[in-house]
Amino acid sequence: MLKNAPFRSDEFVSFQFKWGEGNDLVNSYDSATGDYQYLNKKDSLVKTNVKLRENDIIYLHHKASELGFWNFPDVISNAGTDLNKSKVLRYVMQFNYKRKTKKVIFVTDYNEIAKLRDVAKQMETLLEQSINDAQERYGKKK
């Protein structure tokens, strides 16, 4: 199944990860540039640059394949949710390949299919943890 996957690791270019309440996605990371901005505990916007290692990127691609990210619906939200009006925390995960892109919006109050919610949450946690680990590595070098 992995050999026939529409998203191959040798064609991987980058990923973007954004999150916030409603349409206000002030927290973001772009693996292509390393640009990372987030609101800290004091609600101050922190802008920094954090580059992931190549093996981190490959790991995330393989975990996405393992979790079935390519089969996720484009929007994971409860039926009837108006994304333009909802103020619930959401995550936007986008993987970019040479010929294709997969973008998923995950609204955290989703409760219709528990397994889908759990794997979407797991994917979000993997991305967040990878970025935080890389930031910690960079922080220790300074």
TrEMBL record:
<protein>
    <submittedName>
        <fullName>Uncharacterized protein</fullName>
    </submittedName>
</protein>
